[in-house]
Write a structure and sequence with these properties.
Number of helices: 5
Helix content: 25-40%
CATH topology of the largest domain: Elongation Factor Tu (Ef-tu), domain 3
Mean pLDDT: 82
Low-confidence stretches: 27-33, 387-400
Strand content: 25-35%
Largest sheet: 6 strands, mixed
CATH class of the largest domain: Mainly Beta
CATH architecture of the largest domain: Beta Barrel
Shape: elongated
Order of helices and strands: HEEEEEHHEEEEHEEEEEEEEEEEH
Number of domains: 4
Distance between the termini: 74 Å
Number of strands: 20
Amino acid sequence: MKMTNRVKLTAFVWLLAGLVMMGGCGKQRASSVPKAGPPEVAVTVIKPRHVSLTTELPGRTSPHLVAEVRPQVSGIIQKRLFAEGSDVRAGQVLYEIDPAPFEAAYDSAKAAQAKAEANVVPARLTEERYRDLVKIKAVSRQDYDNAYAAMRQAEAELAAAKAAVETARINLGYTKIKAPISGRIGRSAVTVGALVTADQPAALATILQLDPIYVDLTRSSAEMLRFKREMADSGLKRGSGPGQARVRLLLEDGSTYPLPGVMKFSEVNVEQSTGSITMRAVFPNPKHILLPGMFVRAIVDEGSSSKAILVPQRGVTRDPKGDAMVMVVGAGDKVEPRIIRVVRTVGDNWLVSDGLKAGDRVILEGIQRAHPGMPVKVVPFGVPQSAASAGASQPKAAKN
């Protein structure tokens, strides 16, 4: 009996000792778990940056000058003096019309002028004699008046004859059809031996001046209004003159045109059928790479600022009202919500017109763990948080 009690007492002692040891281990483990610190967030520090705004617009090329070559007199084409598709100079002879009838008309007009000049001489002499005789009443006043009228009629006939000569000379010159402008001429619509008439509706050929060349761009009126509001909100600077905005071109094959152009003007009215506004830019085209009718994409420089505030898009959210919002680390490393006004995207950033200033720390990573008013641990964005934490916890080397 005594033996049984002794066994029970020993077992109880061992059980009590085991409980005490387990309690001690539990306390040791609990004491080894570190307390949780503030959540870690990655931020970017806002710095003013230089930014240039561009807009890509569709457009088509058009010639700088266009001239349709037409005859100004009727006749038979005797010669064609140009190669189709070649460059011609202003004043260069392109076609020759049979000049024979116009030469005859010119000679006839010159003969009529000579006859009129001959008639003027006796009429003028008669008027001079009668002028002296009427003073001494040797002839009547009526005779002098008749002599004066005959002289003036002869002079008028001479003037008409001179005008006829000039007309015949001009028509004779029109038998040589010349290029009105310099440029590249297209195909000829007539051949040698064809009959052409003065002021005919069909052109003999068309000349296009390709250097420089126009690019006509289209932009909706709604986009134009939005752009003006953005310029007012963001404080961006625009060129003061019509030729200040620079333009670059992307060609149909995706390549970039090597020479920049300038914006010349914008239409003063909106096209009612499309609701768009036409703008015109001019480009140098010395190698004739750009041809009329080509479809291009134009990149227009619209404004610039040397102190623009940009914030990455990943750091911008929307509140229930739809306003743009960012989380900012404020005083005491506490999170603050900030409502901002965004103008437009610039690459992968938002251009901010209000709500942020230089030096603000915007949270880009860890937003889910950061709540307004909560203290946080700040690390630079782009540095792995594990590396930042390791660097912060690594003890400094002892100085010798």
